[in-house]
Specification:
The protein is an alpha/beta fold. Among the domains are: 113 residues, Orthogonal Bundle (Cyclin A, domain 1); 53 residues; 79 residues, RNA polymerase II/Efflux pump adaptor protein, barrel-sandwich hybrid domain (OB fold (Dihydrolipoamide Acetyltransferase, E2P)). Helices cover 43% and strands 14% of the residues. It has 22 helices and 19 strands. Helix 5 packs across helix 21, helix 13 runs antiparallel to helix 14 and helix 16 packs parallel to helix 18.
């Protein structure tokens, strides 16, 4: 009987470095790794989207388009290249009109992108349908991602605005995020044309039994391949991935060893150990993965400034022999998974991860059921307000804020909006103010309806309290204003964005792209100026710098080519060491030329506005 094959989507170059190292992996480091990826046989490589377009411009001063092209050139179509997109928000922070979506997707596919994973923070199908249509029409593969989230825990103060308004006592509310909820979203995306369905667990909150339940139901209800994406933050990632494999998942998202575990997805090497036990063939060349792993260590070491974790111990699953106790834990985990013994499965997986030195589960994230990034943002906000002691209160308020705001999933950007608002409510209560006295513009927009339809309808009375109007008002993309592409008079009258792909960056991330593109235009202008100066120097008559009378005294020569803008001496002048003899401009910089010692000027060979070349004689001394 032929073994079942498990396809792998490698996240190392995008989600892996974003989860662990703040998306700071430079193009130079990626260029070193790509040749080893070429024949590794990954079904998909995620290399773009997410925070990449913003971060590579903002922190690395590099072009996102160059990154995509570089990956495409080396991979030659041997692995599909994918990106992550927030549907109508793309990689930015506001809903964009269709022509912006089309322009960006068209340019991305032309530059080598194959798969666009499309999700919406609210799981609002209206926010992803146009992206699915466009990706398919433009020749790409639309991957519809359903965002996993959980129903909030209920405490006395968390019955929601409407319940508190009428004195309701807390009762166990109706469950919204059931298996059927996620299956229905997946079926809607498939009907719209999604060629892959992903269960996207951005916070790592899918526990093993839930992974088994949802994946098996997705496999029974959709015809396209099913992908499972999770993180290891609260300690479920590896065990839930094992359950996904057992329940027939087609594609699993992993990272390579040095970029795996912790707040990232599981390491492929650990997944490989389990597939060997389960009789599943992992559809990747693990020898090639070993070559990548060798070079990936240096890439991680280059990111030590942003590395908050610790290195796991080195391990080669093809050649290193496991100790008997870890072999036993693998067998224990597989037996537990097959018998749906979640507690034993988790215990065994944690023992395996601990042996290799991967981070321990984040118990706070596990108990609070919120993404790690959301928690860290709340901590930072409270520190800035010198109110760290309110953290526990703010965490307890998250379920209430979620319910009031339509029970939104906690994923970027809604996780940050809800977390920030929970902090504001905690501060309001400390001051003796009513809940929601302080509210952010983003929370107002969310409640108003500008981010889309929430999983549960927002109570009109609450919407009126927050926005001043009880009616839902979606964002009107017709009011979108395209950012200006100004003419830079100081840089020769060129436009800030010089082509379509740069215009798209300006539309998507205007504040970041503005500085990035200005630096590119400045470099081009200075290079052009230098070339003009060089040509003028070459064309200049020789007479001014080659005197008829032989030069017999010491001379002052031009350090580099440029234009004379000031001459401060004449023949016969006595100069002292440090006196400024002349000033010339080179590479847009004014340069003072000083006397190196006390001397008498014999001859001056240049005049103002004269172009001189490098080493041209400027002054002769007696």
């Amino acid at each position: 009987m032929e073994k079942k094959k498990l396809k792998i989507r490698d996240l190392t170059l995008r989600d892996g470095q974003q989860s662990l190292f703040a998306t700071r992996l430079s193009q130079g480091e990626i260029d070193k790794l790509l040749p080893y990826y070429e024949n590794a046989g990954f079904y998909i490589m995620e290399v773009w989207g997410g925070a990449i377009p913003d971060s590579v411009m903002r922190y690395l001063d590099q072009s996102p388009w160059d990154r995509l092209r570089a990956c495409s050139k080396v991979m030659k179509g041997k692995s599909l290249l994918s990106a992550l997109s927030r549907g109508r928000n793309l990689f930015g922070y506001v809903p964009y009109p269709d022509y912006v979506l089309e322009g960006f997707y068209k340019e991305a596919i032309a530059n080598g992108l194959n798969v666009m994973r499309i999700f919406d923070a609210l799981n609002d199908i209206d926010n992803v349908k146009e992206s699915i249509r466009l990706i398919n029409e433009l020749g790409g593969i639309a991957d519809g991602a359903v965002c996993y989230t959980v129903d909030p825990k209920t405490e006395p103060e968390q019955v929601g605005f409407f319940g508190r308004l009428f004195g309701k006592k807390p009762a166990e509310p109706e469950k919204i995020f059931t298996d059927e909820y996620f299956v229905e979203k997946a079926k809607q995306m498939e009907a719209l044309g999604a060629k892959i369905i992903t269960l996207k667990d951005m916070a790592g909150l899918v526990n093993p039994l839930r992974a088994a339940s949802i994946i098996s139901k997705l496999k029974a209800n959709v015809k396209v391949p099913v992908d499972f994406h999770t993180h290891c933050t609260p300690g479920y990632g590896l065990a839930s991935s094992v359950m996904a494999i057992i329940n027939g998942v087609d594609i699993l998202d992993t990272n390579i060893w040095w970029f795996g575990g912790g707040s990232a997805a599981p390491a492929i090497e650990l997944v490989y150990l389990f597939t060997q036990k389960l009789g599943v063939e992992i559809d990747v060349d693990m020898k090639a993965v070993g070559e990548i792993r060798k070079h990936l260590l240096a890439a991680r070491q280059s990111l030590k400034e942003f590395d908050l974790g610790k290195l796991p111990r080195e391990f080669d699953p093809l050649n290193d022999k496991l100790p008997a106790e870890i072999e036993a834990q693998l067998d224990r985990a597989v037996a537990a998974a097959k018998s749906s013994d979640e507690a034993t499965l988790l215990d065994a997986c944690h023992a395996i991860e601990q042996y290799f030195g991967f981070p321990k589960p984040n118990e706070l994230v596990k108990e609070a059921e919120v993404p790690g990034g959301m928690y860290s943002n709340m901590v930072a906000q409270l520190k800035a307000l010198h109110a760290e002691d309110l953290l526990d209160d703010a965490m307890r308020l998250i379920p209430m804020v979620r319910r009031d705001a339509g029970l939104v999933p906690l994923v970027t950007p809604t996780s940050q909006i809800v977390g920030s608002q929970a902090v504001s409510v905690a501060l309001d209560r400390r001051k003796g103010n009513a809940d929601y006295t302080t509210k952010s513009n983003q929370f107002i927009s969310l409640v108003k309806g500008e981010y889309g339809h929430t999983p549960v309808a927002i109570d009109p009375a609450f919407r009126e309290k927050i926005t001043g109007d009880a009616t839902e008002k979606p964002y009107d993309t017709s009011s979108y204003k395209r950012p200006e592409n100004p003419v830079l008079e100081d840089l020769g009258g060129v436009k800030l964005a010089s082509n379509r792909e740069e215009e798209l960056l300006l539309e998507l991330l205007p504040s970041v792209a503005n500085g990035f593109l200005r630096r590119r235009r400045t470099e081009e202008f200075e290079a052009k100026q230098a070339e003009v100066a060089k040509q003028k120097a070459a064309e200049a008559p020789a007479a001014p710098t080659v005197p008829q009378e032989p030069i017999t005294g010491e001379t002052l020569v031009a350090p580099m080519g440029g234009r004379i803008i000031e001459v401060n001496v004449k023949p016969g002048d006595k100069v002292k060491k440090g006196d400024i003899l002349l000033v010339y401009e080179a590479m847009k910089m004014e340069n003072d030329v000083e006397a190196e010692k006390d001397e008498v000027v014999k001859r001056v060979f240049v005049t103002v506005d004269q172009i001189v070349g490098t080493d041209a004689v400027l002054i002769e001394f007696e």
